Amino acid sequence: MLDLMVVEDNERLRVALRTGLGGTGAVRVVSDCDSGEAALEICLTQPPDAILMDVQLAGKMNGIEAAVAIRREFPRLPVVFYSIQDDEVYYRAFRRSGIISHYAYVRKSNYLLPQMIVPLLRDAVAGRSFIDPEIESRVQEVRQKDEQSPMALLEPSEQHVARLLAQGLSNEQIASQLGFRDKRTISRTNGQIYAAWGLAASTTDEKIARTRAALIVREGRLITWDESGTPHVLDARGSRIPYELRLDR
């Protein structure tokens, strides 16, 4: 029998899920909570075999961010996400999470019945992954949108810093122009920009990340670099293709 944690911020639904899943005879709900922070704490003392988790939760972390935090401690712990949300924030969080196995991500309205959830849990435990076609379609829409407009991934203040960075200004010059007293504020903002554009994971050299960020601003599209340093962009079909700098502009 599968030991399961349920993470759901709606108390009535959480109780219904406990009862319904327990009634299948295939699942034993050993813990439940309403936030990602609480889920992490429970896992540290009583890790389950799998987690059933809403994407929108109480607390600061959403379900996807919570799964990432939990998997730092328990790599590849199986998670089944469900949600009725259609906010691009969640699709971006999922894309950035790097979760590639031992999971399912489905619409709550499509997979609400316990007898439909149990097979997803079993597949996740077996290492298989599944994305509801409706969610996959929206994830790709957001991905293409972000590829066309990387600035959409940044907060307004980060956008200002990125544009000045691309003009070749130093942190001190950017801080002065934007009215910051402490240039370390710009360093912290740079770090947020690198993380949003996937540059923090691809290089530990701040100078390289800075150069790549400037190139993304100048090109107006998101560029990714593989381990060998080869840059890529997405074409109109969503396929990664090598990127070549145009020098005739």
Computed Rg? 21 Å
Tally of discrete structural domains: 2
Order of helices and strands: EHEHEHEHEHEHHHHHHEEE
Structural class of the secondary elements? Answer: alpha/beta
| Major beta sheet, strand line-up | 2-1-3-4-5-6
CATH H-tier superfamily of the largest domain: Response regulator
CATH architecture tag of the largest domain? 3-Layer(aba) Sandwich
Low-confidence residue ranges: none
Give the CATH topology of the largest domain. Answer: Rossmann fold
Main sheet summary? 6 strands, parallel
Number of E-type strands: 9
The top level CATH class name of the largest domain: Alpha Beta
Helix content: 40-55%
Could you tell me the mean pLDDT? 90
What this model shows, in words?
The strands form 2 sheets. A 6-stranded parallel β-sheet has the order 2-1-3-4-5-6, with helices on both faces. The protein has 2 domains: 2-141, Response regulator (Rossmann fold, 3-Layer(aba) Sandwich), CATH 3.40.50.2300; 149-242, Winged helix-like DNA-binding domain superfamily/Winged helix DNA-binding domain (Arc Repressor Mutant, subunit A, Orthogonal Bundle). The protein has helices at residues 11-22, 36-45, 63-73, 88-97, 114-125, 133-148, 156-166, 171-178, 184-196, 199-202, 206-219, and strands spanning 2-7, 27-33, 50-54, 79-83, 103-107, 129-131, 224-225, 231-234, 240-242. Strand 8 and strand 9 form a beta hairpin. With 249 residues, it is α/β, with parallel strands linked by helices. The protein contains 11 helices and 9 strands. The longest helix has 16 residues, at 133-148.
